[in-house]
Write a structure and sequence with these properties.
Radius of gyration: 29 Å
Distance between the termini: 80 Å
CATH topology of the largest domain: Heat Shock Protein 90
Number of strands: 22
Largest sheet: 8 strands, mixed
CATH class of the largest domain: Alpha Beta
Number of domains: 4
Strand content: 15-25%
CATH superfamily of the largest domain: Histidine kinase-like ATPase, C-terminal domain
Shape: elongated
Strand order of the largest sheet: 5-4-3-6-2-1-7-8
Helix content: 25-40%
């Protein structure tokens, strides 16, 4: 008896579904791509229970006749490839001929469609990949695909689905990205009968980009464009002050296809070099167009990943275009001298970018003040910091410090007892304690102070009402999470209320955060919370929120402090329960003894 057998069609379809249909958002992506390929300019998406119960996508594209509708649910059937050469120059979003049969294999699917030249439409009903009924029906021109009971026959896959809110967040992200890439298309997303978001047709791409990127005004965006041979780049950059803590606000498109590409992502970061803090991601939408045979989109079944024939040219174009337009915007904003943005002769030339809009001037930093609220606590305990490794010393001069554990700083004295020498590069506070040199990271130290103030003052934190409540627009997943945290955040001094859809209004903030950018703060909280998910537990999520709030308020690196401010910071450290580490686990101080220094200089053996 032979061991090798041909797989039955149903089993083969289930395997294909495992590659194409990862979660409900995958179904939405495939169906919307088909609708766009069909020339639709109106796409309505209805979701129930995060996609578990129902996913329905209706479009007004060219539709199909009876025979094409039956072929569309067969494996490897497509209208988008005809010859071998077509595979090397994909011009459409979908092309594999697996989407509909793969989805149908793990759901109850109904395909209703009518082409323009037909008076009646056809409805094809499938269950688990098998056609159970085909009927003629009245239908508008276009196609409606109704997917019910997703993963009903693959319980293992269904078991690993997240909550309805989480799955709907993924769907909303996919739909928003597609809406951004096709501003000429009217897109409507509904969940459980409520409209989540609706993007009407936009003649100007900046209008759609401003909406999707975060309820901005089009004039706040900086337009970017560039050319290099057959490559064409366009797009929009949000102000740097709106940078996010995750990459969810970065949208990359190649020939109309939203992608995840390391080449473009890295080039975008290089263009922002010197303008973003570590761990921040630009809020941006970039659209790259190039000959279809210069990019391979057939790298992965989900079609997210791509490969360029000339990735260096792509990288250079994106980096130089972004850097040039940001430099132009900064020169207009500050009136400073024009820096040299000329590229080497052997790099692709970049066209002069279109005029960029001038954004608002960033608020000036206000240093920590001796009048800041302090934590009311019992007299400071004598500190015995934990043992930890010193930070890496520069170059080889300080090699003597390597692999050496640090002994406790002191047993009977406090931070406020240290003799302050000064600051190094506006980042580290230099102090003397006996025969030791103590270096304190001012940002990490102040972050610990603010974090413990928020942690110990729950329900008693001084609050400042905003004269003008501020509205904040979030993504679906972030909005779902924030709505569940409203009461917990109130205990941290943040008064936030839903304002319809994914919009919230902030009415009050903790007094110690009164000078912060409220919108940026709330978005940071929501993004961090959504990244953790409710499965982490509300207390852990609120603790992460305290960390975000502390980081926002903490004095930054490279910011000079007056002597009185340094003294005040050291006194605040004395009130902390764990002054030796910031909330993220980095040390707030290190010690170099006189013997360490003398060994580094060769004064002792």
């Amino acid at each position: 008896m032979p061991r090798i057998r041909i797989l039955p069609d149903i089993l083969a379809n289930k395997i294909a579904a495992g590659e194409v249909v990862e979660r409900p958002a995958s179904v939405v992506k495939e169906l919307v791509e088909n609708a766009l390929d069909a020339g639709s300019d109106r796409i309505f998406i209805d979701i129930e229970n995060g996609g578990r119960t129902l996913i329905q996508v209706a479009d007004n594209g060219h539709g199909m006749d009876h025979d094409d509708a039956l072929l569309a649910v067969e494996r490897f059937a497509t209208s988008k490839l005809h010859r071998d050469e077509d595979l090397a120059a994909i011009r459409t979003l979908g092309f594999r001929g697996e989407a509909l049969p793969s989805i149908a294999a793990v759901s109850h699917l109904t395909l209703t469609t009518r082409s323009r030249d037909r008076e009646v439409g056809v409805a094809v009903h499938l269950q688990g990949g098998k056609i159970v009924q085909v009927t003629e029906t009245g239908a508008a021109q276009g196609t409606l695909v109704r997917v019910e009971r997703l993963f009903f026959n693959t319980p293992a896959r269904r078991k690993f689905l997240k909550t309805a809110g989480t799955e709907m967040g993924h769907i909303a992200d996919h739909v928003a990205g597609m809406a951004l890439g096709y501003p000429q298309v009217h897109v409507k997303l509904v969940h459980n009968g409520k409209t989540v978001k609706q993007w009407t047709r936009a003649a100007d791409g900046a209008v759609r980009a401003a909406d999707v990127l975060g309820a901005l005004k089009p004039e706040e965006l900086t337009a970017v464009s560039g050319e290099s041979g057959p490559l064409r780049l366009s797009g929009y950059l949000a102000p740097v002050r709106l940078a996010r803590s995750t990459s969810r606000g970065t949208f990359l498109f190649v020939n109309g296809r939203r992608v995840r590409d390391r080449v473009i992502q890295h080039a975008l970061f290089e263009g922002f070099r010197g303008r973003l803090m570590k761990g921040q991601f630009p809020l941006a939408a970039l659209f790259l167009e190039l000959p279809f045979d210069q990019v391979d989109v057939n790298v992965h079944p989900t079609k997210h990943e791509i490969r360029f024939v000339d990735s260096r040219r792509v990288h250079a174009l994106v980096q130089q275009s972004v850097s040039a337009v940001l430099s132009q915007a900064e020169r207009r904003l500050w009136g400073g001298p024009a820096p040299s943005d000329r590229s080497p002769a052997d790099t692709p030339a970049v066209a002069e970018p279109r005029p960029a809009y001038r954004g608002p001037t960033p608020a000036a930093w206000t240093p920590i003040s001796t009048s800041r609220p302090t934590v009311s606590s019992p007299p400071a305990a004598r500190l015995e910091p934990p043992v930890h490794e010193p930070a890496a010393a520069p170059d080889r001069v300080l090699d003597a410090f390597s692999n050496r554990t640090q002994t406790p700083l002191w047993k009977t004295r406090r931070f406020s007892d240290l003799t302050v020498i000064g600051q190094f590069r506006g980042t580290y506070i230099l102090c003397q304690e006996g025969d030791s040199l103590i270096l304190i990271d001012q940002h990490a130290a102040h972050e610990r102070v603010v974090y413990e103030h928020l942690a110990r003052g729950a329900g008693r934190i001084e609050v400042q009402q905003l004269l003008m409540p501020e509205t904040v627009e979030l993504g679906f997943a972030e909005a779902e999470m924030l709505e569940q945290l409203i009461e917990g955040l109130r205990g941290l001094g943040l008064e936030i209320e839903p304002f319809g859809g994914t919009t919230f209004v902030v009415k009050a903030v903790p007094s110690l955060l009164a000078d912060e950018d409220v919108g940026r703060l709330v978005r940071g909280l929501a993004e961090r919370s959504a990244a953790l998910g409710m499965g982490a537990g509300q207390e852990r999520i609120l603790d992460a929120c305290r960390m975000v709030m502390a980081c926002h308020n903490a004095v930054r690196a490279k910011q000079p402090l007056a002597d009185a401010e340094i003294r005040h910071l050291l006194e605040q450290l004395d009130r902390c329960e764990q002054p030796s580490y910031c909330p993220h686990g980095r040390p707030t101080w290190i010690r170099w003894t006189l013997r360490d220094l003398e060994k580094a200089f060769g004064r002792v053996g």
